[in-house]
UniProtKB/TrEMBL annotation:
Keyword Metal-binding tagged: yes
Keyword annotations of the record: Hydrolase, Metal-binding
All residue ranges annotated as the Rhodanese domain in the record: 272-363, 375-463
UniProt xrefs under SUPFAM superfamilies: Metallo-hydrolase/oxidoreductase, Rhodanese/Cell cycle control phosphatase
Name of the protein this chain belongs to: Hydroxyacylglutathione hydrolase
Gene3D superfamilies in alphabetical order: Rhodanese-like domain (3.40.250.10), Ribonuclease Z/Hydroxyacylglutathione hydrolase-like (3.60.15.10)
Any single biological process term in GO: glutathione metabolic process
Annotated InterPro entries: Metallo-B-lactamas, Mito_Persulfide_Diox, POD-like_MBL-fold, Rhodanese-like_dom, Rhodanese-like_dom_sf, RibonucZ/Hydroxyglut_hydro
Length: 465
């Protein structure tokens, strides 16, 4: 029999939850779960333990909390434990946790530590062997990351300075005073927008972060304030909505949200519903060859969660076009993680049934980097990568609009221009090009391979460092 402490990475949203159990004691805890709760139940069965505690380090903004979903599936054995520091309130059944509260799971003990800054209520959990006084680890939620800290600006400008001060105090008075040997288990990995430039590793140590984390090396508050606020990436549009939803308590299903199969006729009828969004999850080349008018091409990679969050309202009715029917659960799960559950159905038989029914399709032209280079006078390159990517080099004479901000800045673009849309490899380019096409742009081209292909072809680059 053994102690288990296992990280579980939800790719795309780059979120890390933790499963903790002592097989000899028969009990288990889950920290910061995602809504697709089967993985935690499977681990409980594997180790023959019962999930009794579900902890939330704070009210999440970047993904839909799975705490309510998981507890609903535990048949009364588990309760949700949430921070009531910082006057946090919740509209679902919960057990309050305050700084200093302790919990034991066989040979491991957890103690709550108030670590505000990312949010006012934020808790971290120190991990101890039950018979020892010094912690061997700490679950830091969104407060301390590998090479980074949690951003303090998600509650609006009026709260940012206050939370920045709290984050600085947490960094100096809590994390910097822990032993160098303490292992840090953050709840986000590289790719999350909850902190600037989060490192690639899944865990770290206090000693390593003291030595290498740029924010932990800053002693002056004014310098810290400038560094953390200036480095924050753009705030994804779904974050404020997710925070409210998670404080209220998301709807529970007891399984993956149901999505019905629709005939071509039924699919067409659902398309008439106001604000309906068609998400086509096929590869960009398949989408470019022919798709339903108005569809967005968000391919079914894990990052689908994030771009659906950026571009699609969580309440919008959603219709799905899939590469294959067997992909349904995977796609629905990815959308569920960022709060999208208003599914009207998916197209039975996929695009083949639409084509064979004689329904209209439109194309999204795919332009190779060689064609763009040879006919550069005809096209306006549109770069939809992040600011950091843009600064490291771009296609000459390109216009830059980050994909997440395209909706807000679309009015700055001339619909009569011929656009050649690119990103790093083509995935985001196809999302952006389909978004422009959906909004009435007739002369849009997507570039497969995008900037990687441009560099591989040894074509000229601007701003190259």
């Amino acid at each position: 029999m053994a102690l288990r402490f296992e990280p579980i990475l939800a790719e795309g949203i780059a979120q890390v939850s933790y499963f903790l159990c002592d097989e000899s004691a028969g009990c288990a805890a889950v920290i910061d779960p995602v809504p697709d709760a089967d993985i935690y139940l499977q681990k409980a069965r594997q180790y023959r333990v019962t999930i009794t505690h579900v902890f939330e380090t704070h009210i999440h903004a970047d993904f839909m909390s799975g705490a309510c979903e998981l507890v609903s599936r535990c048949n009364g054995s588990a309760k949700i434990y949430v921070s009531v520091e910082g006057d946090a309130t919740y509209n679902f059944a919960h057990e309050p946790v305050r700084a200093g509260d302790k919990f034991e799971f066989g040979q491991v003990k957890m103690m709550a530590k108030h670590t505000p800054g990312h949010t006012p209520e934020h808790l971290s959990y120190l991990l101890f062997e039950s018979h020892k006084e010094d912690p061997w680890g700490i679950v830091t939620g969104d407060s301390l990351f590998v090479d980074s800290l949690g951003r303090p600006d998600l509650l609006g400008d009026e709260k940012t300075d206050e939370l920045t001060q709290a984050l600085y105090n947490t960094m100096r008075e809590v994390f910097c005073k822990l032993g160098d040997e303490v292992i840090v288990y953050p709840c986000h990995a590289a790719g999350s927008a909850c902190g600037p430039d989060i490192g690639d590793r899944m865990h770290t140590t206090i000693g390593y972060e003291k030595k290498h984390n740029p924010f932990m090396q800053i002693e002056s508050f004014d310098e810290f304030k400038k560094a953390i606020q200036d480095s924050a990436p753009p705030v994804p549009t779904h974050y404020p909505k997710m925070k409210k939803l998670n404080a209220k308590g998301p709807e529970t299903f007891g399984h993956t949200p149901p999505v019905r199969s629709l005939s071509v006729k039924e699919f067409e009828e659902e398309m008439k519903t106001p604000d309906t969004i068609i998400i086509d999850t096929r590869d960009m080349l398949a989408f470019g060859g022919g798709h339903i008018e108005g569809a967005l091409n968000i391919g079914q990679r894990p990052i689908l969660s994030v771009w659906a969050g950026w571009l699609i309202d969580t309440k919008a009715p959603i219709l799905l076009v899939l590469p294959d029917g067997k992909d349904l659960d995977r796609v629905v799960t990815l959308l569920w993680r960022t709060g999208h559950t208003n599914f009207k159905g998916y197209l039975a038989g996929n695009m083949r049934s639409w084509q064979e029914s004689g329904k209209p399709i439109i194309k999204l032209p795919q332009l190779s980097v060689h064609e763009l280079s040879q006919n550069k006078e005809q096209y306006q390159p549109l770069d939809v990568r992040k600011q950091k990517e843009w600064k490291n080099g771009n296609i000459p004479n390109a216009t830059h609009i980050f994909l997440g901000e395209l909706s807000d800045k679309i009015s700055t673009l001339n619909k009569n221009q011929k656009f050649a849309v690119y990103c790093a490899s083509g995935y985001r380019a196809s999302i952006a090009a389909s978004f422009l096409q959906k909004n009435g742009f007739q002369n849009v081209n997507s570039i497969p391979g995008s900037f990687k292909a441009w560099k591989a072809a040894d074509l000229p680059i601007e701003n190259k460092r």
